[in-house]
Amino acid sequence: MQPLPLRLNPGDDLRLSLEAVLAWHRVSAAFVLQGIGSLSVAQLRLAGAAQPTEIGGDLAILTLAGSLALDGAHLHMSLADAQGRVVGGHVAPGCIVRTTAEILLALLPDHEFTRELDAGSGYPKLVVRPRSTSLPPP
User: Fold this and answer.
1) N or C: which end of the chain has fewer CB within 10 A?
2) Is residue 113 within 8 Å of 26, Cβ to Cβ?
């Protein structure tokens, strides 16, 4: 495991930025251990919902965790608004950093993560394999 601290800047798309890290570091598996910061807009798919809900305003990232694969991310985040109300859900593209996002990743260069459709749930599920030779070493 290789720890990788990141800082995202205002205007960055949180999810797209994290997905891009894997290709940049030439790994195909990572976990988001934690993240804090702020967003100006969030796109969260709430539990049981088919589509993301847009949440605007000054939002504090309380928690951010999940897994990253070359074919997609599975991220959960909890946010607090300016009144202290908390909401959480699955992170979709369109979560825009307001002032900063400070994130700690664990890169897993000896593993490959993929997302494969699970017939039981209808959702892509994480599949973990030892790293093949399809990617050059980091």
Assistant:
1) C
2) no
Q: Tell me how many domains the chain contains.
A: 1
Residue 138 covered by a domain:
no
Containing domain of residue 121, as a range? 2-130
In angstroms, rounded to a whole number, what is the distance separating the alpha carbons of residues 66 and 31?
Answer: 6
Q: Is residue 95 in some structural domain?
A: yes
**116: which strand partners?**
125
Q: Write the pLDDT tens digit of every residue in 59-102.
A: 999 999 999 999 989 999 999 999 999 999 999 999 999 999 99
Classify residue 117: in a domain, yes or no: yes
- Residue 138 pLDDT exceeds 90: no
* 67 close to 113: Cβ distance less than 8 angstroms: yes
Tokens of 92: 């979709």
Please report, for the domain that includes residue 39, its CATH number: 3.30.1330.80
Write the single-letter amino acid at 22.
L
